[in-house]
Structure formats: C-alpha cells, structure tokens
Amino acid sequence: MRKYVFWILFLAIAVVLGVLLFPSKKAQMANTPVVLTSGYVPYTITQQLAGGNVSVQMLLPPGAEPHAFEPTPGALLTLKQAAAFIYVSDELEPWAADLAKAAGVQTRLVQLASTVPAGADPHIWMTFDNAKILAAQIAQVLEDIAPARKEIFEKNLAKFNREMDQLNSAFQTALARCRSRRVVHVGHLAFKNLADAYHLQLTALSGTSHEGEHSAKKLAQLIKQIKESNVSAIFTEDTLSPRLAQTVAQETGAQILPLYPVEHISKEDFNHNVTYAELMHRNLESLKRGLQCPAP
Ligand SMILES: [Zn+2]
C-alpha cells in the first residue's frame, strides 16, 4: 500500500513540475504577440524576420487574390486582438484599408507603401530595393512589440537584405544579354516595376488589378503581336485559370511559363512556407528560359 502512495505522490509531483517548467504550447502562444498581415507579401517577410518569435497570421486565404477580396466578419475580431496589422496599401487592398479604419487603438496600423516612393504600379515589392525598405519597416514594428527579441529581428533583417542584394545581382547578370527583352504576360499588370528595373518591355493582358475583365479585342491584339515578333514564350500566373494562356499558346506556338506576383500564393506553396526570395528565384528562372538568356 505504502509503495502505491509513494508512486502516486511521485507522479503528482512530476506532473506539477512538468507544468511549471514546461508550460503548454497553448500557454506559451497566449503570451506571444500576434501580427496580422493582409496578404502574402507582408506575411512571408514578417514570418522570415520574426523567426517564430511572433505569431504571424494572414487574412487573405491561400489561393485568393488580393485586389477584390472581401474579409469575413471574423476578421475584425482577429484584427482587434492583434498587436499590429501590416498591409501593403489602400490602393492595392481597399478592403484592408476599410478594415484598418475599424481597428481599435491597441492595434498598430502599418501601411507599407507609405515609406516607398510613389509610382504608377501598386505592386511595390517587385524591386529588391523596395523589398528592403518594406522589411526595414516590418523589423521596426517587430522590435516595438517584442523589444526583448530585438537582436534576433536585426540579425534576420540583415540576412534578408543580403538575400535581396544577391537576387538583384543575379537578375542583373542573368538578364543582361537575352535574345528577347519582351515579356508577354497573360495575366494582370503586376510586373511593371520588375520589368523596368531590368530594362524589359512588358505587355500584360489586363491592368494593375484583377478587376475588369480583359477584352476579346485585347486578346486578339496580343496574339497578333506575338506572331509578328520573336516571342517564343508567354508568361502566366499560377493562380489564374490556365485556359487563357493555353488559347494564346495554341494560336502562337509559344511555350507557357509561370510568373509569381507574390501577392497571392497557392495552397501548396503556402503550406511549404515558400519565401519571397524563393518565388523571385522562380521568376528569374522563367524569365531566363522565356527570353532565351545565355548562361553568364
Ligand atoms: Zn496585383
């Protein structure tokens, strides 16, 4: 009998010590500040800089596109409980701007576009210089809400900046001497800033937002342009229906290659935590193949 009492006491003490020394994941997460992000651009950069020290959440579900998204009623509650809400811009995500207006005083609002020189294209993360500006802004937010982790955030920011510089050099070198400089994108105008940075000529089927369907006339013009020029590849976005690109490819014989605007993300890439840098590497591989750029 005594033996049983001993073991019961021993187990009880072990359980109490276990709870005290190793609080449950749920309890740990309850003390972790939450940063809510609008879509994949702020999400992936914040994740990379936070390195697991902040809980990062995204409103835009994987597979959805950001221009015309409508958040669920639950989004406001999530927003009010977050330490910060980071979104790209009122112009790119009008729904996020509306939501931000309804946030409580305890949620810090961060519109990333406010620190980037204004241009015609709202896809501001499509140059590496701008990506560094966005990351610096996000790192500052993280330092403010979790000051004890400042050193980690600064280290992660330095790493991110090095990646951006490496990507910039890779793009410059790889795209310097290509057989074609013409990027025909059977999607929306998300790559203007990128094309301008590396002196490529971009034609896109629709405008800077997904709203407003392209016209049949525009599609016919695009097909005519491809047939008349030395374009051997067309580009499309992975979350768009492949039907349009297939039509253009059948008409022109051009091969189809993917481009990733980063602002929306497939479920598969989301589940694999694919980073901004990885998506931009994929973009470079597609451009190199499609524009027939020789290896440096
Ligand atoms: Zn877009």
Distance separating the two termini: 81 Å
What is the CATH homology-level superfamily of the largest domain?
A: Nitrogenase molybdenum iron protein domain
- Major sheet: order of its strands? 2-1-3-4
Write down the overall geometry.
globular
Could you tell me which ligands this complex binds, including any ions or cofactors?
A: zinc ion
Q: What count of helical segments does DSSP give?
A: 12
For the largest beta-sheet, the strand count, sense and barrel status come to: 4 strands, parallel
Number of strands: 8
User: CATH topology of the largest domain, what is it called?
Assistant: Rossmann fold
Radius of gyration: 24 Å
CATH architectural designation of the largest domain: 3-Layer(aba) Sandwich
How many domains, in number, for the residues?
2
How does the helix and strand content classify structurally? alpha/beta
Q: Mind telling me the CATH class of the largest domain? A: Alpha Beta
Sheet-strand content, in percent, reads 5-15%
Helix content: 40-55%
What's the SSE blueprint?
Blueprint (H helix, E strand, L loop, with lengths): L1 H20 L3 H6 L3 E4 L2 H11 L4 E4 L15 H8 L2 E4 L6 H8 L6 E4 L16 H18 L4 H25 L7 E4 L6 H6 L3 E4 L11 H13 L4 E5 L5 H10 L2 E5 L7 H5 L4 H15 L6
Parallel strand pairs: 1-2, 1-3, 3-4, 5-6, 7-8
Bound molecules: zinc ion.
